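does this look right to u?? iron/sulfur cluster version
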Amino acid sequence: MKAGLISLGCAKNLVDSETVLGLLRKNGFEIVNNQKEADLIFINTCGFIQSAKEEAISTIFETLKSKRDNQKVIVIGCFVERYKETLIQEIPEVAGWISISEYQDFAKILSKIVGTPCPINEFDIMNRVVSTPSYWAYVRIADGCDNHCAYCAIPLIRGKYKSRKISEIKKEVEGLVKKGCKEIVLIAQDTTRFGLDTGERIEDLLEDVATIPNLYLLRLLYLYPNDVSDELIQVIKKHPNIAPYFDLPMQHGSNSQLKLMNRRGTKEQCLELLTKIRKGIPNAICRTTVMVGFNQESEQDFTELLDFIKAAHFDRLGLFKFSKEEGTPSYTMSGEITDTKLVAKRYEQVIALQRKIAYQQSKQQIGKEMEAMIIGYNPTNQTYSARSYAFAPDDVDGCIYIHSDKKYPNGTIVKVRITNCMIYDLEGQII
Ligand code: SF4
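got this back:
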């Protein structure tokens, strides 16, 4: 039997998708990229915020509409975890639903859906089929979250924070590096919390993994700003193969909004942290994520957010509109902002401000020399795209465009001099 999979949502969900593919392969399924060839089409959904739910629904309906009569659609993941009973009733054309809490019985449930035995019932992250290009991979170091930010459905969907053991993560990275992987991106809902439940520490994990022979670049994403220790900064500084890339989701720049969101820390503490990072590691790249339109966000709060963004001068900034989610404390909180035009206006204001900051930051890169990894090629204008440590993968950030008529396979490390910049992207020459 042939199986294909559509993976929606974040990098953490992609790792689940890869683990499902591993389980399918072990049970004798042939994995195909072309949906038309598949007997079973899996859709791994995200159900985190409204836009993700809408994407899940439209993908399910589009797939059902385009499938052949003898193809089966099976929907899995976060969206199913949240709304399984309703979905079963509303979309009976779907052949099967598997929620995250059922993954331990994935093969058993699957064999009932397809009517053939699936004897190997191990939902084993160590056996995943890595779907990213061979030269980089995500490695999930923990699952779940204990932070309970007031707007966030993740703890409801994925449960309590569960760290993997350093020894297992190290083994996984060693295996990937042996197969030619150059960049490893460590992920979790909150990587600074790693090991609190197992008596291990993120600093020790980085020390252990960074010393794996032939690992070109190690990147750590999603750091809770308040929990970035001096030692963590020192470990990142000490190892030349750990990207000095600090991904610090702040969510807002007004202390009263942060308190309402149940976030630890203040904007002042975040600004102090940025100063410390930049003083210790002058070439550090700092990224954040913020949202607009959270309950009770006043004009004063919004002005504070803009002022915070100006003061912080983040190299990169991700932006969301608040999405009111059932089951989270924010759902019943007073002060909902129902004026969608106001939220849209604030969103545009943040984008406009960050564009200016990003352009200033990008301009400072002109003339600098750096290593970058080739990740794509456009033959029409003979232009490569490449990423240095300063750009996270998966189109999270921009990239460096390089014009060259020489041949460089994807994954090649080149030395580049930056010659020009757009807003988020850079242009360079190979030297
Ligand atoms: S840290 Fe907060 S926003 Fe992030 S996953 Fe945990 S609860 Fe959600």
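The radius of gyration is 22 Å. idk if thats expected tbh
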